[in-house]
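Journal club side-thread
Mid-discussion, someone asked how the predicted structure for our own chain would compare to the paper's figures. Pasting it here so we can look after the session.
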Amino acid sequence: MLNQNQTPLLNALKANAARPHAPFYTPGHKRGAGIAQPLADLLGTKVFRADLTELADLDNLFAPQGVIQAAQQLAAEAFGASQTWFLVNGSTCGVEAAILATCGMGDKIILPRNVHSSAIAGLILSGAIPIFLNPEYDPVLDIAHSITPNTVQSALQLHPDAKAVLTVYPTYYGVCGDLSALANITHQYNIPLLVDEAHGAHFVFHPELPTSALAAGADLTVQSIHKVLGAMTQASMLHVQGNRIDCDRISKALQLVQSTSPSYLLLASLDAARQQMALHGKMLMSRTLQLADEARTRISRIPGLSVLPQLGESPGFVALDKTRLTVTVSGLGLTGFEADEILDEKFAVTAEFASLQHLTFIISLGNTPADIEQLVQSFTTLAKEYRRTNLTLNNHLCQNLISTVSHALHFSPREAFFTVSETLPLIQTSDRICAEIVCPYPPGIPMLMPGEVITKPVLDYLQQIQAMGGFISGCNDTSFKTLKVVKI
């Protein structure tokens, strides 16, 4: 057992920030002396003394032998991995590296259609061929859950040559599928189960939370420590266990997708966040769960509102992260986008994201009882003062993005991304082959990707989501009046 009270990287950074010396190395602001005054006024000057580069005492992220290696070993033990890598480019680079390390050009990978756009980037970079599976879908709530064991089993029977299975656990709504069953099925084919666990870094620290991906049998998992724990934005981790993943390929893949000038502020925040959770994680999560339970109970009693249940009735929904609160507002005659705008502008309550019928909130170790009171009171007032007649949703909008995509890939994502393309008015793109990623954001789930046939229902869905307050990202034209397609 390692001493989880240690913070080797944080201590080394603190010592180097305090050491008097003449700096003739990057970054150019020279320990804060050259920082613009408006930025210094906002952040103070102390943080810039710790904004250092790969000095001798600070180790090297891509060939760690000192304090970074020690910090990663502590993290591996705390999170239940055999090896851990620190990530400074977010979970995005971790998902990309996972695909690059397991799939080469033309290799098949099985994954859900509601993957994050980072997985699509991994397909483009690797040249892998996606075998997309529809996740289970709740048409009443208009929410996609997880892919099911039966779906994965059928896909592997049809594609026994697949090199890996990738899944999302939990979803953006906090829903967890039967990951243990997915791992068992995947391992019958002796291939790895890769998990985008960006929103589940806290699971391992409390028994009332869903089983962590590694404990459920995943071979590799990527976690955004910054999303639900105490690290700085972009600071994430990649964990591996077992022998189905070539760790050397992970390291080499990360060299392709991470900055060669990593921020030591981000790296040190990972070290500190790990220590915090290793020492106090259960207590912090108990408090967080209490706050979440209070919010869920009180909001569920407000007329016109409902919350996502804590347990589904299907293999695509076997557990819920109770710190993730999804409130259905359509009973008030409001869309999620409208309710989001009202809560933010009128009550200073900001959700994680809005969808057509829902608002989703992340309740984490940083929230307070005052935050919960403000959230509940804002919904109480919303229900009393902003209720309208029942909301009538367009049929296309009631169809979740999963049920409207075509899945017709004429080219691999890599081929379509790098082929000659042209930009056309949106009305001229139906039945053409898409050459860019298009997704309503958040949560960053692509509706269209390079190589996929563009259909009118998809275009209608995206335009109507945009008209109702959502926005489209990923594509070159952010106004979504034109779209890049493969040139005929």
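Post-session note: The longest strand covers residues 83-87.
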